[in-house]
Amino acid sequence: MAIQPIRLFGDPVLVTPASEVVNFDKELRQLVADLTQTMQAAPGAGLAAPQIGVPLRVFVWDINDEIGHLINPSLDLSAEIQDGEEGCLSFPNLVYDTPRAFKAVAKGFNMHGDPVVIEGTELLARCLQHETDHLDGVLFIDRMNSEQRKLAMKEIRESEWFGVATEGGKSPIVKVSPHTTFGLGL
């Protein structure tokens, strides 16, 4: 297992839809392990493969001491909406209220290719939606109303991390504040 650099806002991989996983092999299991270790080191509540530069439909989460992963997810969402604070490891220390469905049912596969269904409400539902958005090239700031998005973009442009990259175009891992709900890969 290895902690990987987390890509920051501005990296094209974050807004590019990820490819379906077709090989459920040792490399995929290593990716899940790397994602989990990177998420926990950040620390975060979730992390999607594009956030470490891998354009595959894979994400991990750690909500209420339950660690999980999902491959090639699809979501069924409730009509009931929740507002709540949301952040993202690719946007260090940026937290904004973001509307999400209150309940999410995620269908996909585990790292061995077995079908799984994950049902969540509140924080787990938020995480499932946030991480699936990453796989679709959608960022949490895209879910904000125009006024909030303008404020967020101003804060991003003024941040110390904006535009920071390391050798090879990879962004460094940045620690987020403990109140961030979704370093959270989220």
UniProtKB/TrEMBL annotation:
Pfam families linked to this entry: Pep_deformylase (PF01327)
GO terms (BP aspect): translation
Requisite cofactors: Fe(2+)
Reactions mediated catalytically: N-terminal N-formyl-L-methionyl-[peptide] + H2O = N-terminal L-methionyl-[peptide] + formate
Active site positions: 131
EC number of the protein: 3.5.1.88
Superkingdom, natural source: Bacteria
Class of enzymatic activity (EC top level): hydrolase
Cited InterPro entries: Peptide_deformylase, Peptide_deformylase_sf
The UniProt record lists the keyword Metal-binding: yes
Cofactor binding note: Binds 1 Fe(2+) ion.
Keyword Protein biosynthesis assigned: yes
Keywords: Hydrolase, Iron, Metal-binding, Protein biosynthesis
MF GO annotations: metal ion binding; peptide deformylase activity
Family matches, as Gene3D superfamilies: Peptide deformylase
Binding positions for Fe cation per the UniProt entry: 88, 130, 134
Family, per entry: Belongs to the polypeptide deformylase family.
Cited function: Removes the formyl group from the N-terminal Met of newly synthesized proteins. Requires at least a dipeptide for an efficient rate of reaction. N-terminal L-methionine is a prerequisite for activity but the enzyme has broad specificity at other positions.
Protein name: Peptide deformylase
Record gene name: def
